[in-house]
Automatic annotation (TrEMBL):
One of its GO terms (molecular function) is hydrolase activity. This is alpha-L-rhamnosidase. Keywords: Hydrolase. The keyword Manganese does not apply. Its EC number is 3.2.1.40. Residues 399-747 form the Alpha-L-rhamnosidase six-hairpin glycosidase domain. It is an enzyme of class 3 (hydrolase). The lineage of its organism: Bacteria, Bacillati, Actinomycetota, Actinomycetes, Streptosporangiales. Pfam families: Bac_rhamnosid, Bac_rhamnosid6H, Bac_rhamnosid_C, Bac_rhamnosid_N, Ig_Rha78A_N. It comes from Nonomuraea typhae. The keyword Cell membrane does not apply. Residues 749-816 form the Alpha-L-rhamnosidase C-terminal domain.
Amino acid sequence: MTVNVSAPRAEHLDEPLGLGEGRPRLSWTIETDQPGWRQDACEIEARGERFVRESGESVLVPWPFEPLSSRERVPVRVRVRAAGEWSEWSPVTVLEAGLLDPADWTARFIAPPGEEHLLRGRFEVRRAVAAARLYITALGVYEAELNGVPIGDHVMAPGWTSYGHRLRYQTFDVTAALRPGPNTLGATLADGWYRGRLGFQGGTIATYGEHLGLLAQLEITYDDGSGDRFCTNPSWRCADGPLVASSIYDGETHDARLEAGQTWVPVKPLDHDLATLTAPSGPPVRRSRELAPVAVLTSPSGQTVLDFGQNLVGRLRITARGRAGDRVILRHAEVLEDGELCTRPLRSAAATDVYILRGGEEEEVWEPRFTFHGFRYATVEGPADPHLIRAVVCHTDMRRTGHFECSDPLVSRLHANVVWSMRGNFLDLPTDCPQRDERLGWTGDLQVFTPTAAFLHDCAGMLTSWLADLSAEQAPSGAVPVAVPNVLGERAVFAAAGWGDAVVLVPWTLYQRYGDAALLERQFPAMCRYVDHVALLAGPMLLWEGGHQFGDWLDPAAPPDKPGDGRTPKPVVATAYLAHSATVLAEAAAALGRDREHERYARLAGAVRAAFAAAYVAPDGTVLGDSATGYALALRFGLLPGPAQRAHAGRRLAEVVEEAGHHIATGFLGTPLVCDALTEAGRLDTAYRLLLQRECPSWLYAVTMGATTIWERWDSMLPDGAVNSGEMTSFNHYAFGAVADWLHRTVAGLAPLAPGYRRLAVAPRPGGGLTHARAALRTPYGPAEVAWRVDGEVLEVRATVPPNTSALVSLPGAEPFETGSGEHRWTVDGGCSTT
């Protein structure tokens, strides 16, 4: 028997440099050729100490030693035991703590006195360097360099947080970049989210502050054990540079003629609370790939148009040669209309980058640094070779974990579109769209998409940070902003069903998918405050019928200028969500061992369910509004009191879908639920017909129209190729991509049954004429997979169950049964036989 243990992982980080936790939890996976292998103990080694834990846990295992101190560097390894036999030791992971206490910072923020963007400081390296760390952040966004060489590969650092509460800093190992004698540490600052305009309808400028700032602390350890510390302080200097303008919405202008000959002036100190500094809990934004244009076109107006074949998020890298002062102008858009860039959906976002050449015989290569765009197409004016231009894709550098494919190429393309929409909108935080004057962390969009997101990528660390901002910005009443971080002001802090519920449902989903009980514990007070607040709003009748609601947003029946006025009455949506969040909160309390809170919220959930049924459900099970979303909510959230009502609601849901010609009749909140509701009602055939519909509105309509990401509206592009004139017409909006979760769990048949996939469901449900499907997931315990193929009347199913887990297998026409880890194969042919 072979048992191999992976190098341990700290928290949700693949790069354990600059950890912000003194007691980092450890995770590891097992590779073994023994079916049914189960860990019964582990041994962790660090600092020359060993700790044996009599436990089968291998995910987010508590740190058993004294806490790490700031800057401490600790090699860690583990081994595991099963049936009395110990494995070999894992490879070593070296953990290194960041600055864990505000008192660790001797650096202070500095700021340019005017609009200067370049900051520089000089220092001496006295002897051979053993190690050097740079701790750095900015108010604004920054790129740092040491002796003229860029530090790290982060993009748009330090990212966007609720700056008054939390400001992330980064840790870099700069040992190799130092040289004996004089050295120069510098950074370029830009507005980013801190000072640039944010919001829609023009947005606001300087939301967080008037002045950009830099905080840097370089700590050097020499070969003799002595050290030096070099920090941002009043001795630094600043200057204008080639960055003429930079805006997330409007783009960047770079004048290469200004790259030399600057006049350096003193910086000024800037006050900012160092207690807000926090280490990252997830990976940074990085460049992930480059795409060459698949076509270079000429528009009817004579513009040179680049088509990259994929709607993406990032920027262009150009190669140009020309005279000093020549301009290369780049404009971006997601779609073409009548052969020209369609920029109307960008609203007020200019999305235009300008490079002014320094001139000379050499080629000049340039890429914007402090902006990003959502685009498939771009026009280029000026002396840049269009064939050498590359689209540089940028997003949070999350590890890809989940994959899906099936026999229908349109459905597989739909899934690929979901993946690309997640990439584009998970750029430091989960945004609604990446191209227009908005790009905000809307709570409702993420709430419906989190189950899909947590399958496709390891987004636990990134969303842990976003949830911390959500809690920090929660009002004393319990209401949360509809977009986080909140740049929309007090008008955006109110309870909206499906949006505010993200404070409850996102942590619960992350707990289910990653097994992170500590995150659930940390968010639990915010979850309680929100549900208590909504219960007060619902009043003694426990019907949530007041206040502003988004409803089933972008129901295709809603008027173009009133996207929240769909077929489903808003009180039905709101009260259903109150019942659901109270139910989830009760389950979370039980998972955390909080018996009193479990009983309290279970009672509340039961009372709201009863109130919903009395007010909105007819005796036969008809739900007020008679809409697909209303029935899906009632069925999925358990709001129908008796089996007869549930049966009627299931039949009526199928009828409503059929009466609509199997076209989509749901918005943001109904769409993630409708296929599951149909499946559970015994109408899998109807769910597949809904999935496979190609006419508008449907999931596959956009695919047939050439979409490479998920659209905001079902009809963002009309059948004749015209772009919808509605204000909300984004071509990269992941909310309707939430159907991918159903593809993973039902079509392919891979789902979690215990937190972190410690127990899996293997339950494929073929249909719709599909002949094969497959879902593969790198769970916290290791790779899992379900794949099936129909050959005539025979269904063949393959499954991989990770070591240290088990699975409940439910095959069509067979009784469910348990199985252990390993590779499995079953066939179904008028019964079930296993091989």
